[in-house]
Amino acid sequence: MKKLLSFFAFLLLFSACASSPSSKSFQPSAYSYSQSDSESVSVRTASTGGSTNSVKTEQKDRMVIITTYLTLESDNPEATTEKLLEIPPKYKGYITNSTSKSASIRVPADKLPAALEEIKKLGEVTNQSVYGEDVTTRYLDTQIALDNANKARERYLALLEKAENVQAALLVEKELERLNKEINHLKGQSNYLQHLTQFSTLHITIEKSVTPGPLGWIFYGLYKGVVWLFVWE
């Protein structure tokens, strides 16, 4: 009985020491495009409470998720959307969702400029914005947590072989089950971040073109004249 109690106490202590930091939520930092490829940047991890540690990574190795928002005007939004949906397969991309007047697609990051130029030919661009989200720190934290979880799993497997009775074995197996779920979750997070940095996302909205009437053209001409008088490039 004393051996069993000692084993339980050891197991509880071991579980506390082997706990993984993956339960913390990580907030990716903003990405600055003004940094040079050769510049070193500090990596911030949640385990240090936001303070900068000694880990360094090269700018060219940063993991950045690129998302583009584009608004087009077209005489026939539905027909334009149908043409739009034909573009992703050309660049080995895919469609995430679509409606009669909008679509969200993903294409390989290196194919983004070519795909974007083809999309712009489908109508008149009225708005375009591009956002970059740096997830390097988030990815590194996930990899560290995954490594810790795998090491803890190996220790529990070794501990399972030394279990002296069924009760002790059941306790170890319960911890192994928890760790297996955590490892699968962390692997999914890691793969998802890798995928989002390899594929750029485009959200396209297509609006119907508005044609001015006779009076509308008159006011439009007056507007252009005023602009010409006061604004010279």
Q: How does this structure look, described?
A:
- With 233 residues, the chain is α+β, with helices and mostly antiparallel strands.
- It has helices at residues 2-17, 77-84, 112-120, 136-161, 166-198, 214-230; strands at 40-44, 52-58, 64-74, 94-98, 102-108, 124-134, 199-208.
- Strands 4-5-7-3-6 form a five-stranded mixed beta sheet.
Largest sheet: 5 strands, mixed
Quaternary state reads single chain
Q: Structural class of the secondary structure composition?
A: alpha+beta
* Poorly predicted parts: 19-58
CATH architecture of the domain at 64-134 and 199-230: Alpha-Beta Complex
Helix count from the secondary structure assignment? 6
Tell me what portion of residues adopts beta-strand conformation.
15-25%
Cα-atom radius of gyration: 27 Å
Mean pLDDT: 77
CATH class of the domain at 64-134 and 199-230: Alpha Beta
Alpha-carbon distance between the two ends: 90 Å
Shape: elongated
